[in-house]
């Protein structure tokens, strides 16, 4: 009986760990302007105020300009990544309108764990 209980607990821990892992990564793939995702893809303007759910998201007000560097693809195509000033993060694509396209072709690349980290002072953390 004890052995069955131990196996169930182990399965529960494995299942819980897997579910936590899946919440960290928003998508396995993203589209960029180059393989390193360093080129700006487009310049967009916020059409609504947006306040993200955690530190991985970019907050902005209507009318602010954002530079887009990547777009999540496949599992979560609604989220784009961009910056305004020194702030950088994810935001829903339907909260902005494209003002200028800066690249000719998008390149799809696999995401990295570092794509989904929050920066708090000198430490990176997952939310």
Automatic annotation (TrEMBL):
Membrane disposition: Single-pass membrane protein
An individual GO BP term: endoplasmic reticulum to Golgi vesicle-mediated transport
Signal peptide positions (record): 1-22
Domain of life: Eukaryota
Keyword flag Coiled coil: yes
Segments forming domain SH3: 39-101
Gene Ontology cellular component list: endoplasmic reticulum exit site; endoplasmic reticulum membrane
InterPro entries: cTAGE_MIA/OTOR (IPR051500), SH3-like_dom_sf (IPR036028), SH3_domain (IPR001452)
Keyword annotations of the record: Coiled coil, Endoplasmic reticulum, Glycoprotein, SH3 domain, Signal
Alphabetical list of SMART domains matching this protein: SH3
Protein location: Endoplasmic reticulum membrane
UniProt cross-references to PANTHER family, sorted A to Z: MELANOMA INHIBITORY ACTIVITY PROTEIN 2 (PTHR23158:SF38), MELANOMA INHIBITORY ACTIVITY-RELATED (PTHR23158)
Name assigned to this protein: MIA2 protein
Gene (name only): Mia2
């Amino acid at each position: 009986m004890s052995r069955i209980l131990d196996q169930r607990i182990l399965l529960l821990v494995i299942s819980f760990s897997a579910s936590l892992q899946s919440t960290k990564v928003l998508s396995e793939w993203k589209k960029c302007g180059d393989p390193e995702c360093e080129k700006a893809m487009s310049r967009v303007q916020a059409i609504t105020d947006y306040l993200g759910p955690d530190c991985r998201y970019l907050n902005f007000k209507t009318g602010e300009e954002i530079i887009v560097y990547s777009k999540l693809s496949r599992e979560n195509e609604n989220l784009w990544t961009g910056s305004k000033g020194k702030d950088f993060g994810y935001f829903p694509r339907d909260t902005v309108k494209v003002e200028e396209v800066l690249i000719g072709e998008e390149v799809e690349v696999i995401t990295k764990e570092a794509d989904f980290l929050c920066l708090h002072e000198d430490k990176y953390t997952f939310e």
